[in-house]
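Dear Dr. L.,

I hope this message finds you well. Following up on our conversation about the binding site, I have prepared a predicted three-dimensional model of the protein together with fe (ii) ion. For your records, I am including the exact sequence and ligand specification that went into the calculation, followed by the structure tokens. Please feel free to forward this to your student if that is useful.
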Amino acid sequence: MPSTIAAPKKVPAAEKDFLPLQGTDYIEFYVGNAKQAAHFYKTVFGFQSLAYSGPETGTKEKASYVIRQNKLTFVLTTPLRSGNAIADHIAKHGDGVKAIALKVEDATSAWEETTRRGGKSFLEPMSLNDGDGQLVISGIHTYGDTVHLFIERENYHGVFMPGFRPLESTYNPAETGLLYVDHCVGNVGWNQMNPWVKFYEDVMGFRNILSFDDKDISTEYSALMSKVMSNGNGYVKFPINEPAEGKKKSQVEEYLDFYDGEGVQHVAIATNDIVKTVTELQKRGLEFLHIPSTYYETVLDRVGDIDEDLEPLERLGILVDRDEEGYLLQIFTKPVEDRPTLFFEIIQRKGAKSFGKGNFKALFEALEREQEARGNL
Ligand code: FE2
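The resulting structure of the complex is given below.
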């Protein structure tokens, strides 16, 4: 140990958030065909065209489409040639989430604070400038090939960021009521949940707010363990799953096999009217996990009174759960690629701050039926 090391400053750890986050800025997906993916997300989810970068804007290696709905921004990026990091990412993982970009006041400090605490740099702080101002971006690696970007955009007034132009389209399907990212779940390998919990605690200053073990999350056949990490103000929540031993292969193992490593399992998106949102999403062709009607025979005994009629919930396959603070309504899509990897959750919170523990069994049984159909159980 070097003897010159300074004594730690006496700042009570709980008082200062060294990584203040203002929420999710955007989620960037690496996809095989960004033009078609943008069309899918506009058509099915109701995203609006926002910005574009590609050869026409001076970017020679990739094309990115930025689409938005309320506070939810997706960036769909594809490589224009083989033999580069984006093409390699897609060859290995298929379409998936590359970056969860977080909005910060100071992207330089975010990078310095996290790398000083052991975070591995992905992108050193970089200032991007154009006639609309300055945006600072930096980033660190997290599980698998996934990264967190830190975006400082207080001094930027353009459409998205320097290098992008407005994306205009004559095709503008109506929005579906999707509002913002509620949480983003990562699947990590065997015995890797706790090391990643420690990463979020040590490197990013998050806290473990909930834990589920294989007794909470298991069916007759498969199990998983999960810990929910939250930043200080609760705007950013990252549950981390790892597989657990069961009689058959769990959904997390299936994901790890087909994604060929750790990565984002699902992105949960908030709505204020889940019945309306899901009715529209189903009408536009989005496929959801099927929940058997027996679930609805006992759900109200478990959760008590709710504002909604049960009939539309059962028809759409929406799940209900309650905690000490209220209840929540949630539903899960099937994977949105041919690989059984990334899917979405639609969630409406009515006071509840939890993640639907009471639905885990029904949900996992639904997932196992899908796994079985794919021959992967
Ligand atoms: Fe979730």
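In brief: The chain has two domains: 21-166, 178-374.

With kind regards,
A. P.
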